[in-house]
Amino acid sequence: MGDIGLLLDGFATAMQPEYLLYALIGVILGTAVGVLPGIGPAMTVALLLPLTYSLEPTASLIMFAGIYYGGMYGGSTTSILLNTPGEAASVITTVDGNAMARAGRGAAALATAAIGSFVAGTIATVALTLVAPTVAKLAVQLGPQDYVALMVVAFLTVAALLGSSPARGLASLAIGLFLGLVGTDTLTGQQRFTFGVPALADGIDVVVVAVGVFAVGEALYVASRMRRGPIPLTPVGRAGMTREDWSRSWRPWLRGTAIGFPIGTIPAGGAEVATFLSYSAERRLSKRKEQFGKGAIEGVAGPEAANNAAAAGVLVPLLTLGLPTSATAAIIIAAFQSYGIRPGPLLFQNESALVWALIASLYVGNVMLLVLNLPLARVWVKLLQIPRPYLYAGILTFAVLGSYSVNALAVDLLLLLALGVLGWLMRRYGYPIAPAIVGLILGPLAEEQLRRALAINQGDPVALVSSPFAIVAYSSIVVLLGVGVYLKRREARASAELAAAQDRHLVGEQR
Amino acid sequence: MNAPASSPDPPAAPDTGRVRGWPWAEVPFPLALVALGLFTVIEATQITVPGSTNGIGPRAFPYAIGALLVVTGVAVLVGLARGQRGEAETGEDVDVEVGTDWLRVAMLVGCLLALVVLIEPLGWPIAATVLFGGAAWTLGARPLWRPLLVGALIAVVTQIVFTQALGAYLPAGPFEGVAFFG
User: Domain named DUF1468: which ranges (chain B) (predicted)?
Assistant: First the structure.
């Protein structure tokens, strides 16, 4: 029952006017960047990391939480009104969401996405509140070798399940791990891969890497293959949700939450898989199967709920184990580190006030998002009409600004440019970006735990795999990869069927 | 319902299928990975190991990462030889069906390099105006004065916000000493 008291204390902190303001700034920024093409939550948090030097931890983490949740909301607007998803997790929303918009029911689609996100976000935050302290209490007993095992699990699942092939995912992870090596070895104080450049002695700044591969990489990629012609924006339409829409939406919201949260908590491919699973579940359970692909509201309500629930689920391993399973989560870990705070089981003991204020702010942020987004949908749509040359020039300008303001070194800008070219090539040749970011953040932590584990056990490598927890973790890799590959196959099949159904539909329309 | 607004072009032949022969454009990237891996391993032998190290020292992890780079690079090459192509990432403003516009990329890189050169002598306001104006013009904003004007506005506002409200340092260049700029 102590947790309830702590949560109430958290609310008392989060409801202070100052923190409410940061939460509001966070959700507005998050929604804006979620709506804007080319900018995702990972990049936004990275761009705002330099702010952490002038803000206190609670304020900036509350703001980052707002950005994180807001970004998930904003993503649905793009997929419904532009018919081109911004991220993998909103691909499936595009199908029925845009079909609804083309039929003049865009407002209803946006509403079911927003309310579904609220319902899922709130329920999943309750689940987080209940699950996280328990996990943290169990995790306190883990030793360094157990952390090594957990990190290996995270590396392999993130790398193998994202992107177009496991080899490319692992290559991306290796690039991130290499970038994480640059700097001074924490245990012996030796410089590694610094090439005698003093600016590299402290390592490559996370901001520079993340902003380079995300922002500059994205801008270069868009420049290389810019979509021509007018922006294909579908009008929102007038009709809101009808009584029938409500009765068809609430079950998918709940089912999406139930699918999304557990998938978010395990490292098995992230929110994308959850949305596809939710979509195929809704289609199977529906009495109106023929409507799917042509504007079934269930096909928007379920996946959007699953997406948000998974986003909350990702916070469980992040807060309790310090284990990021997405690029955004990895950068939030970097934000914690910039305050000298280490996410992990001890977080709930040592930084109890901070964690509970953060969790309370998730509830607050969800309410804010609902209140903001139902009436303001039409305002957000305006953001979609920003002329693309100005949008991407702005992204580049802020990328440079963010990287320069960290250390005020021109060398960092050259590094930014080089990493931007790397990010562009990775996009062009199908190497996923997220494993590199996870590798960059988690690599140094994994090395430290590995060396501590070996030092404790007098260099005996068998100790790494002989603790009961490590055995469970390593055997779960097989299961996780198996489940992950199975889910990916299902996803691929579902999207192939969907594409076929849509083609038939379009052909039918043309006749 | 009007004509299908979606999928403006008919989908091209799927590039996920197995293609015979080498997709040469994709080869340099995994080759570079292998090279980086070998470099990592060789360079790691030069890291000083203090005598007091117990367990594994500062070299072991670099060796492992170097090996991973080599193995994944080779794995991608083997995949390419067997006809497994990479799938380019999709996005709102990306048309994966058009070829790469190298000139445009080179011009954007040029704009960024201009900023790196200009930021210290001429200060953020001027350098950022050049970057924004140049980048937007490269991407198709016309006439030139319009992106330059927007860029100047953004540059001045960020200069003031960052130096005054956030307490960060940005070089002001010729505006050094002007109120609110530094």
Answer: 31-171
Burial of residue A296, with CB atoms counted within 10 A of its CB: 0-12 exposed, 13-18 middle, 19 or more buried: buried
Distance from CA of A133 to the nearest CA of B (A): 33
Return the structure tokens found at A194.
Answer: 């610094």
Exposed, middle or buried, A469 (CB in 10 Å: 0-12/13-18/19+)?
A: middle
Whole-number pLDDT of residue B53: 57
List, for residues A120-167, the tens digit of each pLDDT value.
999 999 999 999 999 998 888 888 899 899 898 888 888 877 766 889
- pLDDT value at B2 more than 70: no
Which residue, among B9, B16, B76, B89, would best test binding to A if mutated, counting the most A CBs under 10 Å from its CB? B89
- Report yes or no: B123 at the A interface, CB cutoff 8 Å: no
Which one of A92, A192, A207 would you mutate to disrupt binding with B, by most B Cβ within 10 Å of its Cβ?
A: A192
Show residues of chain A in contact with B61, CB under 8 Å. Answer: 181, 443, 447, 450-451
Instruction: Kindly identify which residue of chain B lies nearest to residue A170, measuring between CA atoms.
Output: B72
DSSP state letters, B143-156 = STHHHHHHHHHHHH
ipTM attached to this prediction: 0.87
pLDDT tens for B19-45 read 456 778 889 999 999 999 999 999 998
What pLDDT does residue A452 have? 87
* Angstrom distance (rounded) from CA A145 to CA A79: 43
| Bridge partner list, B107 | none
* Ramachandran angles phi, psi of A145, nearest 5°: -65, -30
Across the interface, which of B1, B96, B108 has its CB nearest the CB of A219?
A: B108
Statement: residue A321 has pLDDT above 60: yes
Residues 492-511 of A with CB under 8 A from B: 506, 509-510
Q: Say if residue A203's pLDDT is above 60.
A: yes
